[in-house]
Design goal:
- It is a single chain.
- The protein is built from eleven helices and nine strands.
- By secondary structure, it is of the alpha/beta class.
- The longest helix has 16 residues.
């Protein structure tokens, strides 16, 4: 079961407006990265379902965050079908994210009161996801669709809550463009976790970068 209530998950998202996205096959590295993000103010973290035995890494990570990162919403991304969603929910995922919209995943998540943010690339996909109960839809890939896509959605559908993932960078120039277009929150992966910093175990860099990025975002959001 989820460690946090769905309202608490959405509350964390509303408070920070950023979800780091990360995967590593080494559970020890994953734990250090999550803790570094947490120390930098992050309260929502997406572990991506990639690679062999990703579920085993998540299980270890879930137990670690429960003991060391109180109040952190830990979810799973890259989920494309209902069986995988159900398995991660069983192991304590607080939310589910996917690169596409699958109504069966929505049904499973709704049954367990788990937030589901599906990937959408058209207005119709966003509308269908909203009808299925998805309160936060992921616009993906963001770097292909662009900030204008978000702006144009918000005009006829101002109730939409959009998370942009793909091409988001931890710079004021990039973040201001997304949030001024109407983006509700952003998912950020490789730009937040440079490979050389991970290889060097430079956890303080990640903590400082998260703190800096959240500071930028706070300039353009109203909680």
């Amino acid at each position: 079961m989820a460690f946090l209530d769905s309202l608490d998950v959405y509350g964390n998202i509303s408070a920070t407006r950023m979800i780091p996205v990360f995967y590593h096959p080494d559970a020890e590295v994953a734990m250090q990265v999550v803790k570094a993000c947490y120390d930098g103010g992050v309260r929502v973290f997406e572990f991506t379902n990639r690679g062999d035995f990703a579920d085993e890494v998540f299980n270890t990570l879930r137990k670690f965050t429960a003991a060391n990162c109180p109040g952190l919403a830990l979810g799973v991304g890259s989920v494309v079908d209902a069986p995988v969603a159900a398995a991660y929910i069983q192991h304590g995922a607080d939310f589910i994210v996917g690169p596409l919209f699958n109504p069966e995943v929505a049904r499973i998540c709704n049954r367990h009161s788990i937030p589901y943010s599906p990937g959408c690339a058209t207005v119709t996909e966003i509308g269908n996801a909203q009808e299925a109960g998805c309160l936060l839809c992921k616009v993906f890939p963001g770097d292909v669709l662009g900030a204008r896509f978000v702006r144009d959605i918000m005009a006829p559908m101002p109730w939409s809550r959009i998370m942009v993932t793909g091409g988001v960078e931890p710079t004021e120039e990039n973040l201001s463009e997304w949030f001024m277009a109407g983006t509700y929150c952003v998912g950020m992966g490789s730009k937040l976790f440079p490979k050389d910093r991970i290889a060097a175990h430079d956890w303080s860099y990640i903590t400082n970068k998260c703190r800096e990025t959240l500071g930028i975002i706070s300039k353009y959001t109203h909680n």
